[in-house]
Design a protein that fits this description.
The complex is a heterodimer of chains A (201) and B (251).
Chain A: H1 10-30, H2 33-49, E1 53-56, E2 59-62, H3 66-73, H4 77-92, H5 100-118, H6 126-155, H7 160-169, H8 171-191
Antiparallel strand pairs in A: 1-2
Helix pairs in contact in A: 1-4, 1-5, 2-3, 2-4, 3-5, 3-6, 4-5, 5-6, 6-7, 6-8
Chain B: H1 18-34, H2 38-55, H3 59-65, H4 67-83, E1 88-92, E2 95-98, H5 99-122, H6 128-137, H7 142-171, H8 180-210, H9 227-250
Antiparallel strand pairs in B: 1-2
Classes of the chains: A mainly alpha (201), B mainly alpha (251).
Chain lengths: 201, 251
């Protein structure tokens, strides 16, 4: 779910750059160097997740897991996702320099929102944990594709149909990410609960 | 998968100072992105092609790197000419291609190719430690540079861990398919990845600290000051200003 360079208009890219700058500054401020190591681990898992291909019928899609990263990191998802995107563009030429701001916003804003909405639901009952995890994965991909569509639509109103097509094409991925994030969160809560940030009481 | 074959080169571009490469790829990208004229976009494409020429990268490697962009452009070419409103120049049944749509698709293709080639030639050809050093010199926050370099450091560890987990699953007869069981396995696999990665990465960090690591990566590549940096900067300023002025006069 990357926008290549050269498609978006100047104002859309500028807006993306400003929003991601704010998010990155906030994310960096909240973490010291030792916590940065944890952020780096999750950023690299986010990177490696894009190499995990899952089958849907005859085709395969790669995982994104921005919902999971958002759940675990909160606002620090901004610098983590930016870093992973920079490395992806370095190694695989996904996205690029000028589209970096928009791509970061597309991935990180849903991740941060998911953190605030669904983290408080984790760990109450096992069913609720799975549902919260499912919704985190489902909603984050849904919002990301929506933001991507909006970015295209704001660039040019004639991109409306392509935006709708992109959002519809992501529906299967939303379900798969939901299932995987749901199971993954339940698993993590049992095996390694320290990785889930503590809820403020 | 992550071995970067284009890093170790001996070309004029490879010997430029990282700071200058980052700075001009940034300015050149912004100028190219904001360009709204087909001919000027072609100009940017020619510049990026000449930059790529200077890096002396093998064509085969380059084409492989352009693959993701081709898929993206294919989507654009399928959708934009057919859905764009404007003068119809081609019609077949329900499908009609508009002149404006084809023009826009051409422009996007030129710009995307130009931007990607600039990025490959100037940024992707430098080792990650040099990129970190360049970003540091450009006053990018130290924490962000640290994050970038640490993430890079961990990716190989975590990818290795993933391959091992996948291999173990396959040895036990796991055949991925479109069913809940497969998705569950992938979920546990990525969960285990988080657990193992977290433990291993912590150990790596502790080992680095024991060896005197002070949150700063040093690059071993030395970029001595040379005239080439000045010549390159001068040419780039000339080209960017030239193309921007041409476009302004054109419109």
């Amino acid at each position: 779910m990357h926008i290549s360079e050269g498609i978006l208009s100047g104002p859309v890219m500028a807006a993306g750059a400003v929003v991601s700058l704010i998010g990155i500054t906030a994310g960096l401020k909240k973490n010291n160097y030792d916590q940065m190591v944890h952020v780096a681990i999750l950023a690299s898992v986010f990177f490696v997740a894009s190499l995990i291909h899952v089958n849907i019928g005859p085709v395969s899609v790669h995982l994104i897991l921005n919902g999971l990263v958002g759940l675990l990191l909160g606002i620090a998802a901004f610098p983590a996702i930016l870093t992973a995107l920079v490395l992806q563009s370095l190694f695989f030429q996904y996205g690029g320099l000028t589209a970096l701001g928009v791509n970061t916003v597309v991935m990180a804003v849903p991740a941060v929102l998911v953190h605030y909405f669904f983290l408080p639901l984790l760990g109450r009952t096992s069913r609720l944990t799975f549902v919260a995890g499912f919704l985190a994965g489902f909603v984050s991909i849904g919002l990301s594709s929506l933001l991507l569509g909006v970015a295209l639509w704001l660039t040019n109103e004639d991109f409306f149909k392509i935006s709708v097509a992109i959002i519809l094409a992501h529906v299967p991925l939303m379900i798969i990410e939901g299932i995987i994030t749901g199971f993954c969160v339940s698993f993590l809560l049992e095996v390694y609960p320290e990785i889930i940030p503590h809820k403020k009481k | 998968m992550l071995e970067n074959v284009i890093i170790g080169g001996n070309s004029p571009i490879h010997s430029l100072n990282p700071k200058i490469r980052i700075l001009f790829s940034f300015f050149l990208s912004i100028a190219a992105t904001l360009c709204d004229n087909l001919i000027v976009a072609l100009g940017y494409l020619l510049i990026s092609l000449s930059l790529i020429g200077f890096t002396r990268l093998p064509i085969k490697v380059l084409l492989r790197r352009l693959k993701p962009l081709f898929w993206c452009l294919l989507t654009i070419w399928v959708f934009v000419p057919l859905t764009f409103k404007g003068n119809i120049i081609f019609q077949y049944g329900l499908f009609s291609a508009s002149y404006q749509g084809i023009l826009l698709s051409c422009k996007i293709t030129f710009k995307s190719l130009a931007l990607l080639l600039m990025f490959i030639s100037l940024i992707a050809t430098m080792p990650i430690a040099s990129l970190g050093a360049g970003l540091h010199q450009l006053k990018v926050p130290d924490k962000l540079v640290f994050l970038l370099l640490m993430t890079y450091r961990y990716i190989a560890v975590i990818q290795g861990e993933y391959m091992r987990l996948l291999r173990a699953a396959k040895f036990r007869g796991f055949k991925p398919g479109t069913n809940l069981h497969s998705y569950k396995i992938y979920a546990f696999l990525s969960g285990m990845l988080f657990v193992r990665a977290s433990f291993r990465a912590k150990r790596v960090y502790q080992a680095m600290c024991c060896r005197g690591f002070k949150q700063k990566f040093h690059t071993l590549d030395i970029y001595p000051p040379s005239k080439l940096n000045y010549v390159f900067s001068f040419l780039m300023i000339l080209v960017i200003l030239g193309l921007v002025i041409i476009e302004q006069i054109w419109i």
